[in-house]
Amino acid sequence: MRERRAYHHGDLRRTLLAAAVTAINESGPAALSLRDLARRAGVSHAAPAHHFGDKSGLLTALATEGFELLGAALADARERTGDLLEVGVAYVRFAVDHRAHFEVMFRPDLYDADDPALRAARDRSGEGLSLGVATLPADRVGGDALPAQIAAWSIVHGFATLWLGGALPPEVGTDPETAVRAMARFLFTP
Amino acid sequence: MRERRAYHHGDLRRTLLAAAVTAINESGPAALSLRDLARRAGVSHAAPAHHFGDKSGLLTALATEGFELLGAALADARERTGDLLEVGVAYVRFAVDHRAHFEVMFRPDLYDADDPALRAARDRSGEGLSLGVATLPADRVGGDALPAQIAAWSIVHGFATLWLGGALPPEVGTDPETAVRAMARFLFTP
DNA sequence: CCTTCTAACTTGTCGCTGACAAGATTGCCT
DNA sequence: AGGCAATCTTGTCAGCGACAAGTTAGAAGG
Question: Is the dihedral of CA B134, B140, B142, B148 positive or negative?
């Protein structure tokens, strides 16, 4: 069972997605190659096409997996703490811990953004943040909750993107969680 | 002078950068091809290499141009209004109006982030936002201005990224400037 | 006017990649 | 035991980035 078989790898789909995560962590999503993934998995160069159709199919699956993981992480933080700040911290932690997924998820030119499974996972992950905003006192949010949701999403998403891109100055430090907490206090605070 | 010459195009470097903007606006940076740019400019497939070395060289030049444009836009907004909110609006407007540049600038895996000209332009553009934060009353910022700068940068950068990625819900509307103003009031407001 | 030199551009080629077509193998189901 | 569908392989093609070597335009200097 542990031996490499010529046929019927058994879990090739999952293996390829894991290899994609490794490859993207090494060299970014732009340098990703299906043939390299096949080599890493020890299968022929055309094997990935059977499971994902084409390159964008693989990235669609990876993005879907990412949105599911993000949705679970946000829901967990909200249920555990009931605090919007902690949901935001979980958002940034997800981006840092699942860098490869995150770097694909918000790059819709790389995958098929109309895929039904992806849309469902994406919508579900969005609930995590909007439910988190619902924990805020109503007088801080105002009549319409949408701008507050966008503000919360924007600040943590922007921080995560800048952090991953290495755009932030070194004075920010090496721990993203500390930096997020120091920054997010300017939002929704009287 | 207007005729296409076989040799000595005259302004090929600028022509190729403009073609890259068009191509990225059409299909995103991932699909960019040097040979396609050469075809658009009416030159041979190897002509781009002479001006930019390789693909990452071209994207480095494009990113540098983008940081220069962004720096100018932010400085202009700050000098015109002296208001941090307007600087933030200018940031988002730059991202929307110069989508191709913006999509490359914050993707350092696509270019050479250590290029001296790029670093200089990047640092200069960063001043625009930090000087904008300096217009805030000191009691809203606190002793250390850095977290406030990161907060301001994050919220506008996150909004711009989400907007360009089509990740925001349709209820946000079609005008990014209106949406930014509705959102940014949650930052630095008592 | 003529030579010479250099930057700008072309042609040719290589290995790699994604996509597709057609064939081989395997395990499941009856 | 036999069929069958899913899984994976081999073979092939055009497009791409990078490199090497050759060609041309135009400027610089006598």
Answer: negative
User: Which residues are CB-neighbours of A22 under 8 A, at least 6 positions away?
Assistant: A40, A100
How far is the alpha carbon of B189 from chain A, nearest alpha carbon, in Å? 7
pLDDT digits (tens, 9 = 90+) for A7-24: 566 689 999 999 999 999
CB atoms B186 and A148 under 8 Å = yes
Is there a single domain that holds both residue B60 and residue B136?
yes
Give dist(CA A9, CA A56) in Å, integer. 22
User: What's A151's DSSP letter?
Assistant: H
Whether CB of B45 is under 7 Å from strand D: the answer is: yes
B183 vs A110: CB contact, 8 Å cut-off?
Answer: no
Say yes or no: Cβ of B54 under 7 A from any atom of strand D: yes
> Which tokens go with A161?
């993107």
Do B118 and B165 sit in the same domain of this protein? yes
Nearest to A186 by CA among B134, B152, B181: B152
A161/B157 touch (CB, cutoff 8 Å), yes or no: yes
Determine which helix (DSSP H) or strand (DSSP E) holds B118, and give its type and residue range: helix B116-133
Q: Does residue A113 sit at the B interface (CB-CB below 8 Å)?
A: yes
Q: Say if residue A64 is in the same domain as residue A34.
A: no
B49 CA – D16 C1', rounded, Å: 13
Kindly report, residue by residue over B39-50, the tens digit of the pLDDT.
Answer: 999 999 999 999
Taking only the tens place, the pLDDT of each residue in A15-68 is 999 999 999 999 999 999 999 999 999 999 999 999 999 999 999 999 999 999
What is the pTM (predicted TM-score) of this model? 0.94
Q: Is residue B190 part of a domain?
A: no
One domain, residues B75 and B147: yes
- Residues (29-48, chain A) with CB within 7 Å of strand D atoms: 38, 43-47
Question: Do residues B56 and B110 touch, judged by C-beta distance below 8 A?
Answer: yes
**Of A81, A102, A92, residue with least CA distance to A21:** A102
Q: Which residue range is the domain that position B11 belongs to?
A: 1-53
Whether residues B135 and B78 share a domain: the answer is: yes
Tell me which amino acid residue A184 is: A
Same domain, A109 and A76: yes
